[in-house]
Amino acid sequence: HYDWRPSLKAMIYLDNCNDEQSGGLYYKLKSSNETALELSEARLKGLRPGKPGSVKVKYDITKNKSSFSYCGGSAGSILIFNTDGHHYQGKNIHETPNKIIRLHSYFNKA
Question: Residues 30, 27, 56, 110: is their CA dihedral positive or negative?
Answer without folding.
Answer: negative
